[in-house]
Amino acid sequence: MTTHAEQSREAAAPAPGWALRAAEPTDVEAIAELRARVMRPDLERLGRFDEHRVRQRLRDSFSPLHTSVIVADGVFAGCVTLRPAEDGQWLEHFYLDPALQGRGLGSAVLRGLLDRADADGDLVRLNVLRGSAAQRLYERHGFGVEEEDPIDVYMVRRPGRLKSGAGSGT
Prior knowledge:
Elements: H1 4-10, E1 18-22, H2 28-45, H3 53-61, E2 67-72, E3 75-85, E4 88-96, H4 105-120, E5 123-129, H5 134-140, E6 144-148, E7 152-157
Parallel strand pairs: 4-5
Antiparallel strand pairs: 1-2, 2-3, 3-4, 5-7, 6-7
């Protein structure tokens, strides 16, 4: 079996080919581990990292029905959940292997999801940890800040919002 570190080394191409596949219940542990790796720096910065809790929160809310696994160059690269909500959709659990971040993969995945939401006329909400670099990604794709608390920034994107160059909406 290939470890995440080996997968990261194998996925060194500048622009990996990627696809989404439906998540399966057996994906939960790989996703929980990725969540812990991706979120650790921000959670530590906020004084909120707990080795067990970071994984358990994913396990408790994991919904294979609404989750897609991101596969890049044939290996597990991340995941994303787009869950129906009363007034649109919630984007959750969007984690990408750190070795693949900053190379356009996250933007490509997000663009595809937002194109579908736009076609359905859905607004999309999410929350991101305060100070996370991910907030800039979301702002570039038309999300604006709706509300903030000491830990989280809640963001919203209305259908048809510009995908690049959009302001923060604050």
